[in-house]
Amino acid sequence: MSGKLERALANSFEGHAVRDVTIGDLLREAAAAWSEREGLIEGKAEGTAGRRWTFAEMLDDAERIAGSLAGRYRPGERIAIWAPNMPEWVLLEYAAALAGLALVTVNPAYQARELDYVLRQSRSVALFLVREHRGNLMREIAEQVATEIPALREIVDIEDQQALFGRGSSASLPEVGTNEPAQIQYTSGTTGFPKGVVLSHRNLANNARMFSIMGKLEEGSKMIGLTPLFHTMGCSMGVLGTVQLGAAYVPLRVFDPDAALDLIESERIGWTLCVPTMAQALVEAQRRKPRDLSHFAYLGAGGAMVPPELVRAIKQVIGADIRVAYGQTESSPLITACRREDDFEDVCSTIGRPSLECEVGIFDPATGEILPCDTVGEIRCRSYATMIGYNDNPQATAEAVDAQGWLHTGDLGTMDNRGFVRITGRVKEMIIRGGENLFPAEIENVLLEHPDVAEAAVVGVPCPRLGEAVAAFVRLEDGAALDVEALRQHCRSQISPQKCPAHWQAVESWPLTGSGKIKKFELRDRWLAENA
Asked: Taken in order 75, 78, 82, 83, is the CA torsion positive or negative?
């Protein structure tokens, strides 16, 4: 960590060398070091464990699948996976890496139009899928889409063992470079069409390793995989984090807080990663039915702003050592994180300091100048973890990563003179009311301090007089009713009048992206439709 900052610029260059290693190398190293230790355990929907693999068995299966892949596809080609969290997903992640193929990760909730877009944009030559997930008839959709995509050579059911492992065809595995593309992940951002983020072996393997070092995660400590594997928090920080710890990864096919807590208890799981909506659900489920979570030591939360009240609730109800992290797919994903030694109030109110071997600064979005400490600006980062680029989109890549190598996150925040960063909102989500910039996260945090409010999202909506007005969407605690006057008075006692919401709406559930973030643009569109 750098010394006292005059400008909002910090790094965590602490001598943790970035390794030149591939994803396939990580599995080979684990199988050599911990051959008979469990590395993969199936998490079942009813909250019990299913099939199990040692690291030696994982490597054997991954190499068999990789040999089959190498016999059908050329190194550098792209294959897509369209499936929920399951052991076959993990095995294919390693197999594709060993075969020198780029794995295109696809949200299993996608419909035909979305699937068609990703397959075409990524230039995928094969699609590995399950037949159905949560009522989504994926095989039928895929067959419909495939007729219009000549480049797609085959569709493979990954739950058909003969199809997954191949029918006797096999080839020797290629040499794979650490800077070659390992995955293409489509951003689940809350605005616009997704862009394909191309990430290298070096990006992903090292980012997961730096996370485990910062979290001081214990060797052999099992992790339950709650975040979707099609996102970096799942398939990078989770899968590639556990393999470097000699620890079992336990993918849960469908997120259910009760099933997750039952597995944590029965399998003596040590840690997890989740987005705030998942963390809130875990807290509520544990309150309803307490379990013995004494072995569960660490919960990493990120993917969206983590409110201070939720941080406190996790500590009090779950009992885990919570650490807040912040990242983006374009940075593999980790950018900042709290450390175990950080003060609890810093954990409650910040997103931590720069990740290891990463530089972070707060910039004026208009001028590109580094701003003083405690001044709101755009968060930018520069590190080994920055993406190769957006797939087949050099213009968007140039807009996201400047000539000096800074990744423009599009998030607004501040940095104090210790290097701790706070999120204040998105550049595009910032509300401009009467010429004054308002930051949704600040208002949301105030709302969450009210006992009736379980979750909140704040957006800007059109106002003829002021340009924009503040609209608050709230999910209430069980048994609570929307009392607008009480909430207004609560806000007025905490923040200045112009920040207090002018419009209020209760919601029972949120429109979410595939990785669990609230789609604020849909809330805004809903409000516009209802108030046209």
From this structure: positive
